[in-house]
Amino acid sequence: MKKGKRPIGKILMVLMIIFFYLPILYMIVFSFNDGKSLTNFTGFSLRWYKHMLETGGMLEALYTTFSIALLAAFISTVVGTFSAIGLSKSRKLVRDLMEQVNNLPMMNPDIVTAIGFMLLFITFRVNKGYMTMLLAHIAFCIPYVILSVMPKIRSLDPNLADAAMDLGATPWQALVKVIIPQITPGILSGALIAFTMSVDDFIISYFVTGGGVKNLSIMVYTMSRRVNPSINAASTLMILIITIVLVTINVVPVLVSKRQKKEERSGRKVPGALIPLAAAVVCAAGLIVFFRFNGAQGGRPFEGQVLHIYNWGEYTGENIIGDFEEYTGAKVVMENYDSNEQMYIKIANGEAYDILVPSDYMIQRLIQEGYLQKLDQSRLDCLDKLADAVKGLPYDPENEYSVPYFWGTVGIVYDKTKVDLETLEREGFNIFLNQKYRGDVYLYDSERDSFMMALKALGYSMNTEDPGEINEAFEWLIRCVETMDTETVTDEIIDNMAQGRRALGLIYSGDAAYVMSENENMGFYLPLSGTNLWSDAMVIPKNAKNPELAHEFINFAASFDGAYDNSSFVGYTSANQEVMEVLSGEGGEYEGIDAYIPRSGYGLDEVFVYNEKTRKLISNLWSKVRIAESNAN
Question: Which of 92, 224, 246, 424 is the most exposed place for a label (fewest CB within 10 A)?
Answer without folding.
Answer: 92
